[in-house]
Amino acid sequence: MRRLTRYVLAELLKVFLVALASLTTLILLFLVGREAVGKGMGIVPTLRILPYILPEALRYAVPGTMLLAATSVYSRMASSNEVVAVKSAGISPMVLVWPMIVLAALMSYASVWLNDIYVSWGRTGVQRVVIESFEQIVYGGLRTQKSFSRPDLKISVRGVEGRRLLNPKVVLTHPKSGSQWNITADEARLKSNPAEGTLTIEFVNADFKSDDGFSGSLPSLKFDVDPQQFIRGRPASLRPADHRLSQIPQAIAIEQEKITTRKQEMAATAAIALMTGELSRLAGAQWQAQRGGVAAAERTLHRLHTEQYRRWSDGFACLCFALIGAPMAIRRPHRDFLASFFVCFLPILLIYYPLLVVGLDQAKSGAWPPQSVWIGNAMLVVWGVWLLRKVVRY
Question: Is pLDDT above 90 for 380?
Fold first, then answer.
């Protein structure tokens, strides 16, 4: 029995590791390319973000690779009558399947862990590299397109000579006051300040005007901006998807406290309106703001509850895929493994992913319980158990 187990596990690991390396490389190139093109990054910043995006690429690659390994190994074993030989010796085919189940379960836990690593280390690492390279990114965009645009920062120039920006036109939003500034100048330079984490724009012969009514002309003007404002945008609060799994319970408690506090404020406002007879308070701006605050906190709470289940359901898709791949390959002994792979993957693509998307959307809105994200996984498990039963019995 142990020899069979070691044999099957070795075959699975060989195929799994080779396929994982290949698929991860393709996904990594796609993710890095998307990040580089979207943010206008040069070669050096692009290379620096490679290790930070690797956990995300691995997480995407593991489920499909596990399915490919299961269909490849068990299709070959079935076609060479190894499964028939095991059955004829009075040994249950489950002896051959258990190594795959254990390996897929371990990879499922690893996938959940990789997601956590990317959220806590990878995503912040990418943001840090982009912030540190913001000066190069802006210069690169201005040299190639003569413009650079972000939600709160827009720069256009007539040309770029070395580090000089010729006839720049800048529209930016002040991070503190929120006012919008329009600045034109004969030339400008960009200078990053790594110690302060800011970017200084130095203008020569600048004309400026703000929507607060300030305007004027200066022979020299310096403006400090925070790259983080233009990369992450405002507000700076974490999204539910940016929390580690260990941080989500605390975030849920905070949102629940917000909801309780705001509902108490609404109750106090309603009580005052009834006591004083000023029922117009219940239709005023303050009341609407309180209602909006409660609704926003409830939406965040639903998303936080859903996020916990989503992380685990995404990770354990690896086990669910393998439960389909192994028995399907055994039951199709005279077909090549690619046919078995696509026979398994097509229903997954047409049924599992739509169920996942619907369950996720409904759970985030609060219409369905957060456990709804497991609907697709449950469907695959039922299908896989039914297939395994067929393999054992027949």
Answer: yes
